[in-house]
Each structure stands twice: as structure tokens, then as C-alpha cells.
Amino acid sequence: MTNRPTLVIKRRTFIVMVLVGLYDFVLLGRLSDIQGVESAHLKALADGIHFRGVPLAPFRGNIVDRHGRLLAGSHHAYSVYAIPIQTRKHRTEEVILLSTLLAIPQKTVQKRLQRRQGFVWIKRRLSPQELATLRSQLSALPGIYLLTETARYYPQGALAGPVLGFTGIDNQGLSGIELTYDKYLTGKPGSLQEEFDVTGQTVKFAQTRVIPSVQGDTVELSLDENIQWMAERACEQAMIHTQGKSVSIVVMHPRTGGILAIAQRPSIDPNHFRDYNPKQYRVLSVSDAIPPGSIFKPVTLAAALQEGTATVHSHYFCPGFKNVLGRRVNCWRPQGHGGETLADVVKNSCNVGFMDLGLGLGVQKFYEYLDRFGLRSRTHIDLPGEALGIFPAMKRVTALDLAIMAFGQTLTVTPIGLLTAIAALANDGVLLTPHVAKRIINQRGDIVKSFDEEVVRRVVSVDVARTVQQMMVGVVSEGTGKLAQVPGYRIAGKTGTAQKVVNGRTEKGIYIASFIGFGPVPHPEVAVIVNVDEPVGAFYGGQVAAPIFGNLVRNIFRYLKIPATEPIKPPKPGEPAMVPSLVNLDPETAQQDAAAFGFPVQFVGQGDVVVDQSIEYGGYRPAGTVLQLRLGRSPRIYLEWVTVPRFTGLTISQATQLAWELGVNVSTQGKEQGHVHRQSIKPGTQVRAGTTIQVWTG
Q1: Taking a C-beta distance cutoff of 8 angstroms, is the pair 632, 677 a contact?
Q2: How far is the C-alpha of 379 from the C-alpha of 102, rounded, in Å?
Q3: 3-state SS of 178-210?
Q4: Taking burial as the number of CB atoms within 10 A of a residue's CB, which of 563, 576, 633, 644 is the most buried?
């Protein structure tokens, strides 16, 4: 008998060794997978269990104007948070103390401290007083900590408020540019992490990790801060003079589509956006579609010229009305304009002539040009909430509908949409996409994205566009838009007076006064639209909106240092001449401007700036009439808030002098001599500069 293992035992031993070897191989592979391939992932899971993170908010990217001037920035703010498990031993006392220090209901604090979370906010964005008192009591509040966050601020206050928008408590964009470019502005959040044990307490000699936050990109706008201020001031003055429901102004660079200014009243200060009605968050020029009235007429004109259904040699006759499908449609001038050339039709803003142009085009071609000018679609401007215009369905449009639409009624467009269309005519027939942002720059100074001129399409030929430009020049030089004149420059424009639609019906006596134009021709640098909703008193666009346009464009040309394009020819003495706006100019410039309009001046008082003029701008007086200009020490800034003084007891001259020094107006009731015994606004009330205060004398 032998001790050598049998063949069966050998086989069994071999199989066992192979199985053990395979097991060891699998075990080694899994170990390599855990220690090598999956190590980073598993470590992150482990760290997530025993590391507690406190968020570090990034600085939101800046918003600047086209010259790099800050419009929106960020600063440090302090917030208080809790680690609930660390407060359980003293929770009752801490609830009472936190409620007292931070003016939070005790039930609210109690609920937050009872949460089964590692991190809970108690209060965000502490006031300086809350911060100071809390810091003095932190030693008595275990588990309660302060954290430095970032908060948004707008150094120019209400300047371009609805356009810039605002952010929420977590610095997320909620409206305006802040919302549109939120993904670029937000940045990357970081965190402050520390180890804790199973009970939630910080581990002794714990490891601390800091993941730094990354600031967001800078958004550079096409807006020009100075032009924006000019537009804001023009809106404020228009609200004071017209008593309108709202005023909106948009200034565009027609050769790039870049927006230089968007202003409106009412507006908001984004630093305190919660103090305003949410309806005021809208950018009116983008979100509201309105009946354009006669400022729409250049579109009809361009379409007719491009299609050849009208030429510069065409003649028309206006008896004051036109019968279409048995209905009489009146011209704005009841007595009619008589025989007219096409240029006269445009200059006179003749509704009958434009009805002929529209009917000559036909429904299909009319709608084709609405689409070519982009009026039946959104412009895709980089602001939220853009509305669509409303047009009757093409298949249901009758000849009567077409005739009325041809002069801008029974349809609605957004101001930005119509300005974009008219800017295409100023740009020799090329339609561009309007934009508020110019470029986006990261923290290294690299350009992330650039918004150059984006061509949509050519809408009309160069010859047609320039013909329309010249006819629109006639509107300002000789027609309904004379109050929009800028001495030394050829300005193209169009007045508009549209009846508002209320509850689906056109209401008589409720109007939107408008003016749209560009200049200088033939190489326009700015295109501007002005809309005044429901002005009180005068309501024609040529009376209300044209002077606003002319004064604003004159200031813009002076700021941009655009040289005069033609010699200034003052009117002859005795001829009707428009009174210019001379307020806020230095004496030398005021004298030069007045002379250009045909008026000599007489200065009263002392100072280096004009603070008042004897005849309000925009009206007509015989050339040669002397304008009395009052001088003062500082400009009249219509955006400032003023504390109403006590006028009672003062003489009229004393009250008037005090009012001008503060930047408000007074209107006297009663005897010219005597003392003020009553005033319409109580002393100490905060009002906008430029507000008129009634005073009674006895």
C-alpha cells in the first residue's frame, strides 16, 4: 500500500486551488477598483457624510455701460445661520434671544432650529444695527454663526432701472438684463467645509477645506450712461409738462442696432424694487404693444415705393375724407389738403393719401412688408417679456381694414419693434436685430461673447430708403414735425397721434402722442422714438412728442460732438419760430442756441447756468422776441428728490426765488402782492424736483 495521493485527490486539490486563485484575483481586482478607479468618487461620498459645507456665494458679475462705467455691482452683506444640532442644549434661550435681536417671530426661529439639517438660514442680509447687536451676543449663542455673503447694488439708483432689472435673495436674476444674462453674471459658488462627528459636533483638530467661489462675467452694455441720463431727464420733464399716464423713450444706433438709452416714467429704483408695483418692472417699450398712429406711415410709404405702386411723381387729392366700402374715413384735417404730391402727403401726414397708398399695395403685399420689416414677429431684443403686435388675420382683412391700417390704426406694435423698422430705413434699407448688451467679458479680460451688428435682411433698396429719408426730412423742416428741428442738422421724422383702444374699442379723447425720427441725414447716428400716453391738454404728436425729441437729440448731438451738417439760417424777424429749451445750458451756449432759433436773450440774476426761461420751450413766437433767461448756481436736475419748504409768510418774490433755488416750481393763486398764507403740498414732503406747488396769497 502506498501513501501517494490518488488521482482523485489531486484533481480535487487542483480545483480548490484554482477556485481560491480566482477568488483572490477577483478580490484583488475589486480592491484595485476601490483603491484606484473609484477612489476619488468614494472619497467624495465619504467626505459628503462627515464634511459639513457652508456656502460661499460668488460676487455677481458687474454690469457696465459702453464706456465701462458701473451700472450694477456687488458688495459684502452679512447673514446669520445655524447648525441645529449644536443648539439643542440651549435652544429655548437662543430662540428668545434671536427673536428679540432679529425681530423674527419666536415660532419661526423655533421651527428653523428644530430642522434635521446640518445648515439652516436664520436671517439673510442683516442691517448694520442687527449685525452689531448680534455680534455682541454671539458668545451666548452656540451653534449660531455669521456668514459673509454678497448683495447687489445699483450705484446710479433709478437710472435704467427696468432695463437693468434686479436680483433675488440668492442673487439670482429676476428681471431685465439681470435675468437675460443670469448664467454669465452668476459665477460659481464655493463653500467652507469642516469635519463633524456622528452627533453633529465639530471634530477636534478637524480638517477644514475652502472651495473658493468664482466671480461672474462682466456684461458690457451698448447703453451710454450720459445719453441714458438725458433720456431719463426728458421723460421726467415730459411727465411734468404733459401730465401723461406714462412716457417712454428709446435711443438706438441705427447702423449697429445697439440701444443707447431706454427710459420711461413711471420707473423703479432696483435697489428698492420691493417698494414698487410689479407692473412697473416692465420695460414699456418692449412689453407693451400700442397703436402707432401716423409714426407707422413710413412703412407704408417704403412698401409702396419698393413695389412701384407709387413714385415720387405720383399725385393725390385729399377732400378731407375717403369713402371705402360705403364708410367715410376722415383725414385728421377736416377741410382736407387738396391736391398733393407724394412728398406733400408725407409732409402733411395726410390720411387720405396713405389710404390710397395702402389700397394700391393690396392686402397680400401690405402683409408681406409687415413681415419684411419684422413687425409681425418679435425683434428678439435681449430683454425679457417682449410682446407681439396685434394684426387682423390676413384672410379676413377688407379694403376698409387695409385703408385704416395704412395710416397706423386697427393694429398694434411695440415701440422697439417700430423703431427697429424705421431704423432699417435710416440704415439704407437693412434691418438689424436690436440689442442692449455689447459684449461679455470674463475675469481674465477675455471676450466670452460679442454682440456685433446682426443683419436680419434687406427690406427695401438703398434708393427707396434714401427717398423715404428725404421725405421724412420734409416732415420736420416744413410739415407736422417742425418742433423736432435741431438747428444745423437735417432731421428725418414722423409725428403720430393714435386713439387708444380700451376694452377692445377705440376711445375718443384718449390718445398716445408719438414721434419717431433719426439724424443727422444722410448718415444718421441716432434713431429715437418718443411715446406719451394720455397727455392732458394738447395731444397731437407734433405738439407733445416732437419738442421732446428735438430737445433730446440736440443734447445728444452736442454730447457726441457731431459737427453741424448744414448752415444755420435763423428765421427773419417777425416770422413764427419755435422757442428752444435753454434750461441747464451755460450762458454762452444758451445765447448761441437762442440765436439759431431767431431769439435774442436777456439774462437775469447771477450764476453760470440757465435755470429758467420766460417762454416755455416748444411754443411758437415771432422771431426777434426777447427771451428772458434766469441764471443760477446749479442745473435743474429733474431726477432729484426735494424737500418742500415752508412758503407761508413769504412774499411772492421770496417764494419764487426759494422755489428756484431748491428746484421746484410755484404757481400763485390770488393777489400779486401780499404774503403766502397756504400751499398745496405740506412742508417737509419729499417730491421730485420740477414739481409745481400751488401757493395762495391774501
Answers
A1: no
A2: 47
A3: HHHCHHHHCCECEEEEEEECCCCCECCCCCEEE
A4: 644
The b-or-e profile of 107-136 (16+ CB within 10 A means b, else e) is eebbebbeeeeeebebbeebeeebbeebee
Q: What is the percentage of the chain residues whose pLDDT exceeds 90?
A: 43
Retrieve residue 586's grid coordinates. 451755460
Helix or strand run (H / E) with residue 316 = strand 315-318
**Pick from 209, 383, 171, 410: which is nearest to 290 by CA?**
410
User: Given this model, what pLDDT does residue 201 score?
Assistant: 57
Cell (9 digits) for 99: 427673536
| Long-range contact set of residues 108-117: C-beta below 8 Å, sequence gap at least 24 | 112/82, 112/84, 113/82, 113/84, 113/87, 114/84, 115/84, 116/84, 117/84
Q: Are the C-beta atoms of 213 and 436 separated by less than 8 Å?
A: no
Q: In this structure, are residues 539 and 553 in contact, taking their beta carbons and an 8 Å threshold? A: no
Amino acid at 627: L
pLDDT, tens digit, 9 for 90 and up, residues 15-41: 888 888 888 888 887 787 777 777 777
Summarised one tens digit per residue, pLDDT across range 263-319 is 999 999 999 888 888 989 999 999 999 999 999 999 999 999 999 999 999 999 999
Sign of CA dihedral 196, 201, 206, 208: positive
d(Cα 320, Cα 325) in Å, to the nearest integer?
A: 17
Torsion angle of the four alpha carbons 548, 551, 552, 558, in this order, in degrees rounded to the nearest 10: 170
Write the CA distances from 285 to 60, 232, 420, 458, integer angstroms.
27, 14, 12, 24
- The secondary structure of 666-686, three-state, reads EEEEECCCCEEEEECCCCCCE
Residues 6+ apart with CB under 8 A from 596: 487, 488, 568, 570, 580
The three grid cell numbers given for residue 601, joined into one nine-digit string: 436773450
The reply to whether omega before 522 is within 30° of 0 (cis) is yes
Contacts of 124 by beta carbon, 8 Å cutoff, 6+ apart: 77, 79, 149, 169
**Do residues 379 and 416 make contact, with C-beta atoms less than 8 angstroms apart?**
yes
Closest alpha carbon to 511 in 483, 485, 545, 482: 545
49 burial type by CB count under 10 A (0-12 exposed, 13-18 middle, 19+ buried): exposed
In the numeric block, which cell numbers belong to residue 248? 417712454
Q: What's the DSSP call for residue 413?
A: B
Interatomic CA distance for residues 357 and 296, integer angstroms: 13
Based on C-alpha coordinates, what's the Rg of the chain?
Answer: 35
